Amino acid sequence: MRTMTRAFVGIATAVAIAGGTVAAAGTSFAASGHTAKTAVTSESVTVLTTNNMGLSAARAKRLQSWLKTYWGYTGAIDGVLGTNSWKAMQRFLKSYWGYTGAIDGDPGAGTVSAMQRWLKANWGYTGGIDGDPGPGTQAALARFCDAV
After folding, report:
1. Staple partner for 59: which of 27, 55, 90, 135, CB 3.0–4.6 Å?
2. Average pLDDT over the chain, rounded to whole?
3. ∠57-63-67 over CA atoms, to 5°?
């Protein structure tokens, strides 16, 4: 009897979940005049990537100023490295440091690898070109920001 009760409760639970809930199952079918509206469309959503790579806001502002002067950054000098900051950095890296990815503002492994090549050649980065923005990459980027 106990096994049969558990089976019945399990089936009833599955039916209730599939229907929304037992209490709402009757009303969800009765409300035919109600139509659902989409709250957000895919066209209105923009995912912003923010990644300061360990930089303080002051250093990130210096990097943004440099990117604005030389690489077409058009955003605010706010100390937050977002999508537009990284797009400008990717334009720089594509021009000189072997970045081959899209100018999409995502500071992924390809962006970081190109940045590591630049930092290794000029700003004291001694680690591998591995696309991992670890402490060595962050310290070299900070040195650059302190110099601009």
Report:
1. 55
2. 80
3. 140
pLDDT tens per residue, range 112-124: 999 999 999 999 9
Within-domain flag for 65: yes
How many domains is the chain partitioned into structurally? 2
Give a yes or no: residue 48 inside a domain.
Answer: no
139 residue type, one letter: A
For residue 76, the tally of other CB atoms under 10 A from its CB is: 13
Domain assignment present for 52? no
30 and 68 assigned to the same domain: no
For 15-19, 86-90, 115-119, 138-142, which range has the lowest pLDDT when averaged over its residues?
15-19
Tell me, what's the pLDDT at 50?
82
Over residues 8-40, the pLDDT tens digits come to 445 444 444 445 544 444 444 444 444 444 444
Contact 45, 135 (CB under 8 A): no
Q: Which domain holds residue 27?
A: 2-36
Query: Dihedral of CA 18/23/24/29: which sign?
Result: positive
State how far the alpha carbon of 50 is from the alpha carbons of 7, 35, 42, 85, in Å: 50, 37, 20, 9
